[in-house]
Design a protein that fits this description.
The chain has 14 helices and six strands. With 374 residues, it is of the alpha/beta class. The chain has two domains: 6-159, Four Helix Bundle (Hemerythrin (Met), subunit A), CATH 1.20.120; 171-371, 3-Layer(aba) Sandwich (Rossmann fold), CATH 3.40.50. It has a six-stranded mixed sheet with strand order 2-3-1-4-5-6, sandwiched between helices. Strand 5, helix 11 (297-309) and strand 6 form a beta-alpha-beta unit. The chain is rod-shaped and about 100 Å long.
């Protein structure tokens, strides 16, 4: 299955009103009069009809391309719909598409009317006048939707930057407060290369990475940091993270920073974890204490007990550790994560059918082909 973001990457650039008219006029001016001798009125009609058809077709086809190739807002994946709602003005996009669609149909109908009038005209000056009148009226209509064309081009540029997401593959969303170590974990576990720094809000947008696992890939999402505050107080960066939690997370990893330089208190981080448990239903939750190489073992164990007492970790929501130095600790986390995906996720109804069509038996050893039950 193609990644959903391909629909944005393949959108053609939306020309400005002036560019549309320049292209159409240029093509129209290249149309030469017919070479055949005969009735000059008939030749004049043929020449102007050809120029009209070339001019109107150029504009109509380009406007149609904008409307028809722009993805239907009612059919795109909910994740992209919510991101668009956060980053762009959906009502303005809808209105702009409607205006462009309306103008292209008006242009076609108007050209039919003018061509009919031209066919019934026997005066060469009036024949040319019909063509000039049509070009002027169409130009006026194109200029009137100039702002809509600019709106759609700006939307296209924005949408082309949306992250890659494949709904046929398992997705692990990594979340937590700013500077908790999410980017370091993504960098360790996947092919993603997020910016890593020792200050909050390093991640300004969703970053996707991939981890190869036998015959398929796991998607990882590095989300911008979240703060313990009401939804109405969250900024655009945080809202992107919430969209990922809501629509993408098959497995959710919540990272807790208990170091002295943590950007949020433990109470704030625990409150945020409670909110995530309440509002987001991922297939599996994993809580991870990060930066354990910077913390005494006694403090790590103390926090573990605190999480257990608050019932923030249990058999269904296991607790692991992540360290920038101790790769054995990190490998334990990845081993558990791989086990969850292999034994729980890919055999679930969500992935069973899609993986059935994507697995190439030639890539599997014979013992795995025999042991893999769809």
């Amino acid at each position: 299955m193609d990644k959903l973001d391909d629909i944005w990457k393949n959108l053609n650039r939306v020309h400005t009103a002036q560019e549309l008219l320049d292209i159409a006029f240029s093509k129209s001016m290249k149309i030469k009069p017919p070479k055949s001798r005969g009735d000059p009125i008939r030749r004049s009609k043929e020449h102007e009809i050809n120029r009209i058809n070339t001019f109107t077709s150029s504009i109509y086809d380009r406007l149609s391309d904008i409307v028809e190739n722009f993805p239907s807002l009612n059919q795109i994946h909910p994740f992209y719909f919510e991101l668009m709602d956060i980053l762009a003005d959906l009502d303005a996009i809808r209105l702009s598409l409607g205006r462009v669609d309306g103008v292209k149909e008006t242009i076609r109908n108007l050209s039919y009317d003018i061509l009919e009038e031209l066919q019934n005209t026997e005066n060469r000056m009036k024949i040319k006048s019909h063509r000039k009148s049509l070009f002027g009226r169409i130009s006026s209509m194109i200029y009137q939707i100039g702002d809509a064309l600019i709106e759609l081009e700006n939307a296209r540029k924005l949408l082309s930057t949306l992250p890659n997401y494949n709904p046929a593959l398992p997705c692990v969303v990594v979340c937590g407060v700013p500077n908790v170590g999410k980017s370091s974990f993504i960098n360790f576990a996947t092919s993603g290369k997020p910016e890593i720094a020792s200050y909050p809000f390093t991640t300004k947008k969703l970053i996707f990475g991939h981890r190869n696992m036998k015959f398929f890939q796991i998607q990882f999402v590095d989300t911008p940091g979240l703060l313990d505050r009401p939804i109405e107080d969250r900024n655009i960066v945080e809202l992107q993270a919430l969209a990922a939690l809501k629509h993408l997370a098959d497995v959710m990893i919540y990272m807790v920073d208990i170091s002295e330089n943590a950007s949020s208190t433990l109470e704030e981080q625990f409150n945020l974890l409670r909110d995530i448990y309440e509002y987001y239903s991922a297939s599996k939750f994993i809580v991870v204490i990060s930066k354990t190489d910077l913390i005494s073992r006694l403090k790590v164990l103390s926090i573990q007990r605190k999480l257990e007492e608050l019932n923030l970790v249990n058999e269904d929501k296991p607790l692991y550790e992540f360290s920038s130095k101790d790769h054995k600790v990190n490998d334990n986390l990845l081993t558990y994560l791989d086990d969850v995906i292999m034994n729980d996720l890919i055999r679930s109804p969500k992935f069973k059918s899609s993986l059935y069509f994507e697995i190439d038996p030639d890539l599997l050893p014979e013992d795995e082909i025999e042991g893999f039950n769809y």
